[in-house]
Amino acid sequence: MIAAGFNRAQWGYAVLVVVGLAAPFYVYPVFAMNVLCLALFASAFNLLLGYSGLLSFGHAAFLGAGGYVTLEVIRAWRLPIELAIIVGTVVAVLLGIIFGALAIRRSGIYFAMITLGFAQVVYFLVLQMPWTGGEDGLQGVSRGKLLGIVNLQGNLAMYYFVYAVFLAGFWIIHRTIHSPFGHVLRAIRENEPRAISLGYDVDRYKLLAFVISAGLSGLAGSMKALVVQSANLSDVHWHRSGAVVLMTLLGGMGTTLGPSVGALIVAALENYLASYGSWIAVITGGVFIACVLAFRRGIVGEIRALVKRSF
Amino acid sequence: MPDDVILETRKLTKEFHGFVAVNSVDLRIRRGAIHALIGPNGAGKTTVFNLLTRFLPATSGSVIYRGEDITRLRPAAVARKGLVRSFQISAVFPKLTVLENVRVALQRKLGTSFHFWRTQRTLAVLDGRALELLAAFDLDDYAHAITVELPYGRKRALELATTLALEPELMLLDEPTAGMGREDVGRVVALIQRISAGRTILMVEHNLSVVADLSDTITVLARGSVLAEGSYSEVSRNSAVLEAYIGAEQ
Asked: Which of A180, A186, A198 lies closest to B123 in CB terms?
């Protein structure tokens, strides 16, 4: 590490930040925004899977809840966009507390099944409740103005807003992982009975991780819904919960950048292969199988291992 | 309860679906003593440990620690009261560094363990104390190694260092020399002797020479019940004990 300056990792991040700033000039901004939202979603998911060892199979509920609630409070209550995002995120946090408090007592497959069950309940509610628009979802909600000044109807302005939120969310995750709390979380993942015998109430730590993950997933959902100005059933469907597992494993679980890379790949496949129709699922599935067989640690995980070996 | 008894069990019992693993066990651990729990395989020694530390709920009976009934506390709460256990299989955090292993134990006292918004650099204040503990166990050279790479004997030493970081009043050691070569056994015996100053130790141990060297009092368990209790020379002459051991070896 160079004492008075950036180390290698920090240089890497600086380059990525610049790439993110330039992105909307080279790729379609709506696509780029979608990638950022999914990347934040996957990173939030990774906080749970990669750093707490908990496999949730119901994270679509938080993403979807954030999106639906944000659009609805803009439409029905005419809330400004910033407040709407906060309300959407808070609802996801509250859902996270309820899901988490009950699911956290179990681990492994039982934890996954409880979260899946909850997410199915949310899916059913979204399908049946009058304000969510059933099969049609919520559509045509205006993005409005940020702080009453910046018009976000333009895609470029919206992009930089999404980008700022993504960076903030990413920073929160990074900080959480590298905090005193993150240390205890790692210890729990490594050896739970030992962590208990050191006096840690492990369930409380897991619950906090779950709630942070749920809240940031809700934030990603809020942003995503604002980008496409709509929310629909696919946001709360269990396919979405599965896709985020796929993105995280593809990119590398337990790595900082892995989930974002995974989100980029999955979104790019879906975007550029759109003309192949339902074959997308087959192709993404094939890529996923190939990746998991060829590099178990995910793309970023393998690169990291390679760099470690050669330096 | 007299002052010099730190831990007492009263008719402690654990049944698993009708099978009585621990049967009405009355233990009294004197403050400052090294107390060994021995017995043939399946005697219920580890189950007793699990009951004392609340890793298993007791079917009936009670556990009194420093005059307080802790039978219904959560396991982490028991640990916070100063009754800390080790495990039969080496209980370390394999992917953390050796220093981080000890620091995780020290960290709780800072009261910032839920602070996800703080940087981990705030934990550096503990590094000095952590290194001190590592040095006491000859582990300071390994401080920045990833724990999984340590030899087995060192891992057990690290486990003791981590347990000691909590400054427990009562340490429960579950087979501290299990799976060790003779050299490592000697080292661990010396370590236990050293850390026993000012605290109480209750240990489960198979190696009878370790027990003979270390313990003030020995309780022999067989089939979930107390068979005999006393010093090593008393217990080793007890005919019921001899019978239980020989019976178990047949």
From this structure: A180
Contacts of A238 (CB under 8 A, 6+ apart): A57, A58, A60, A116, A119, A120, A123
Smallest CA–CA distance from A182 into chain B, residue: B116
CB-based contacts of A308: which residues, under 8 Å, 6+ apart?
A: none
Mutation target to probe the B interface, by most B beta carbons within 10 A, among A174, A181, A197, A253 is A197
Helices then strands, counting H and E runs in chain B, come out as 9, 10
**Comparing C-alpha atoms, which of A299, A216, A292, A221 is closest to residue A261?**
A299
A179 in contact with B at a CB cutoff of 8 Å? yes
Element holding A110 (H helix, E strand)? helix A108-128
Write the ipTM: 0.82
Q: How many helices (H) and strands (E) does chain A have?
A: 13, 2
Rounded-to-integer distance, Cα A61 and Cα A124, Å = 11
The stretches of A129-237 forming alpha helices (DSSP H) are 155-177, 180-190, 192-197, 202-228
Tell me the β-bridge partners of B221: B226
Lowest mean pLDDT among A190-199, A275-284, B69-78, B79-88: A275-284
Residue B124 pLDDT class (50, 70, 90 cuts)? confident
Amino acid identity of residue A50, one-letter, is G
Sign of CA dihedral A149, A151, A156, A160: positive
Contact call for A212 and B123, based on CB within 8 A: no
Cα separation, A55 vs A49, in Å, equals 5
Q: What is the mean pLDDT of chain A?
A: 86
Q: Give the CA distances from residue A161 to residues A140, A151, A218, in Å, rounded to whole numbers and listed in that order.
A: 19, 11, 16
